[in-house]
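Late entry, written up from scratch paper. The run itself happened at the end of the previous shift, but nothing got recorded in the book at the time, so transcribing now.
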Amino acid sequence: MPLKLAVAVFLVALLVVNTVAESPYRFYEFNVTYGTISPLGVQQKGILINGQFPGPDIYSVTNDNVIINVFNNLDEPFLISWNGIQNRRNSFEDGVWGTTCPIPPGKNFTYVLQVKDQIGSFYYFPSTAFHKAAGGFGGFRILSRPGIPVPFPEPAGDFTLLIGDWYKSNHTYLKSILDRNHKLPFVDGILINGQGRNGASFTVEQGKTYRLRICNVGLEHSLNFRIQDHKMTLVEVEGTHTMQEIYSSLDVHVGQCYSVLFTADKPPKDYYIVASNRFSSILIDTTAVLHYSNSNQQVSGFPPGGPTIEIGWSLNQARSIRTNLSASGPRPNPQGSYHYGMINTTRTIRLANSAGQVNGKQRYAVNSVSFVPTDTPLKLADYFKIGGFTVGNIPDAPPGGGIHLDTSVLQTDYRTFIEIVFENKEGIVQSWHLNGYAFWVVGMDGGKWTPASRNQYNLRDAVSRSTTQVYPKSWTAILIALDNVGMWNLRSEFWARQYLGQQLYMNVYTESTSLRDVYPIPINALLCGKVAGRHKRPL
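Output as recorded:
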């Protein structure tokens, strides 16, 4: 056995003492570098994973242990997070500033993830320093275990499509604008798999059915996705098998992932794949190419149009996305066997996003609190009991009044069932993501939420996912079973807003939490800030 591999196997054996021994292991090595890219025709500095933009897909199967050794060859600290991967009982591996120290330049860190009881389509991305505007993202798929039925035939092919808005400017310039507490300009374009107009191409055989895993990895804009002359059947949303509704186009909000099936049953030629922005007075789009292997004609003419500013259309589509109750999820039992609608909630939390000025500088807030990071990740500060932040310093309802700065941490109790209502009084579409969890999106509507709004909740087959949209002047309600101990990031996926304070952390914990409920700090955990140089176990 080569020395490098032997050392890696020995290290992993030490790291995974708490994982499920019988679950398989999958090993990945990520070399993170800068590289010159020009997706919109202008050279800029991008972040590459193993020389690729976007980075390589991560393939796994339910319950796999996924070991990812990340080498940071940038000139600044770097951190990767795993959008939708729940990291059960192990928020130390979550890869956001509140839980994990960034990897210093020239160093490496080995993430030890277990995709426990999960299936579906997700992605990874760089979570600090506005690196997301430079790349460093890629797909992350979790396949069902052999013997677990999947509610559709095996497709002939399975493609990842990462769509998102994009700037021609380097991320360092964009970050400098935000660091001066100013708003970013309008984006320059849209990419599909890191390429501009007609840059990406997908080859299919006539008569066969294919799966597309579509994730919006952009910075701000909701996007509408469509394939010229082809219908799409929705089959999965962020780990939940859905009712197989048919759509001609699909709104994908920032941070969201969808799986669709389509059949190449049209005349043999090339067709446009289109992604266009939504809910904006400035309209932009981009295209890729669906290439039939026996094609005799290239794409030509204008790509098909799609919805633009219509909110009602998008709202109705969102309400049509429901869980397939009879389908198996990661386990053999049907997804509908967990009757979430019959559980009484113990707490209602209303969270309102807002924008404003603090000391003449642009900030964004949740319940009037604009998040300010500490010099030590919150999870580590809590573990070593050094303080530096106050748990419970954000109210359960919008207090009104102006924005103030603080390190907002919401205390929640382990093994409770709660309701969160996202309230959006602004004229934008908001998108919220919660790390460590999937939640049931039980209701959304225009206007103001009141207790009477519960009468319209879907308490039977609401979709379970980790990212949800909130339309302008509207609300969205979710239900969550708090069964995953840890410190978890709840954030706006509007990335400039997240950077300037529109996020918080949920500390899911009770005094009765036992060692069986949470993993200890990893032996290879990076330590920074006020805990740099400490032993991994507090004295």
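The CA atoms of residues 230 and 262 lie 7 Å apart.
(Scratch paper discarded after transcription.)
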